[in-house]
Every structure is written in structure tokens, then in C-alpha cells.
Specification:
This protein is mostly beta strands. It has one domain: Rubrerythrin, domain 2. The protein has one helix and five strands. The structure holds zinc ion. Zinc ion (ZN) binds next to loops.
């Protein structure tokens, strides 16, 4: 089963709403994955504006 990612913040979502932005706009069509363990120390997280640790899709359609 393919996982769903939030269209807005690209974090992977398990339930019915995004834990980060509370929307329910999900994408099943995504590419790439990145896991942010410590967003305050991650240059990637800061570069793309992530503020919550977790697993993200790199690109969502
Ligand atoms: Zn979101």
C-alpha cells in the first residue's frame, strides 16, 4: 500500500489529518523520501522550511 503525504508540508500522514498543518489534502503520488530527526540541526530541514521532525516526501504532485 502506498503511503500518503501532506500536499502542503509533505510530511507522511498516518491518520485522517496532517499532524503538522491539520489539513486533509493528501498526495499518493510522491517521489523520494527524507527523514528529519532533528530539524534544528538539519541544514536540509532549514533550507526547505521544515519545523517538525518526521518523514517527508521530497516531491508531491
Ligand atoms: Zn501538512
Amino acid at each position: 500500500m502506498k503511503r500518503k503525504a501532506c500536499k502542503k508540508c509533505k510530511i507522511f500522514v498516518e491518520g485522517d489529518e496532517c499532524a503538522q498543518c491539520k489539513t486533509s489534502q493528501f498526495a499518493l503520488n510522491w517521489k523520494g523520501r527524507i527523514t528529519i530527526l532533528d530539524h534544528e540541526k538539519s541544514e536540509i530541514a532549514q533550507a526547505i522550511g521544515l519545523s517538525v521532525d518526521g518523514e517527508y516526501a521530497i516531491k508531491v504532485n
